[in-house]
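Help wanted!
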Amino acid sequence: AQSVTQPDIHITVSEGASLELRCNYSYGATPYLFWYVQSPGQGLQLLLKYFSGDTLVQGIKGFEAEFKRSQSSFNLRKPSVHWSDAAEYFCAVGPFQGAQKLVFGQGTRLTINP
Amino acid sequence: DVKVTQSSRYLVKRTGEKVFLECVQDMDHENMFWYRQDPGLGLRLIYFSYDVKMKEKGDIPEGYSVSREKKERFSLILESASTNQTSMYLCASSFGLAGYNEQFFGPGTRLTVL
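Answered by r_m:
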């Protein structure tokens, strides 16, 4: 069964516009949540993570994400995108399999129009 | 900074060849992972290891094996490469309980099997 869903495979936004990338999960308890970014030709880099406490978390590169338990969501946002934000974004949830692994979503590819 | 390196960025092999992908991390992490990344499927876990000489199957272990003889090195082996193993392979490492902690990724190896 799918544990993490990123409903949008590909999103295009204009430079300077706001951005929201969706992540939905199914998990029995409070999950540990992560957002990663993969720039072209690169490995994945952590943007931010949520473990507990304040449900709005700040990350690097001006990104933030909000944990909404009632909606089983952890959406990533940025108020104004830059051309350098063009990349693939992955949501991840854990722990699974005896606290030994994370499960990653399918990814959302972000294209920026000039 | 944690550094995860992979032996090759690009690799081209013939069907039936034995293929070795090497990964090295320099932060004394207990956990190491091999993922396969395909468009629309996100990251899928092949194998992981939480200690030297220990290994656990991930979600798609068929056709692969792994070796971890030293803490810093984790090798992925394709015993007899097939065209459906053409993909991007990502190595990652983490400390502690893997399901709770950030994973650090290498740049990936793009493998083509002809």
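OP: Thanks! One thing I noticed: Chain B has a mean pLDDT of 94.
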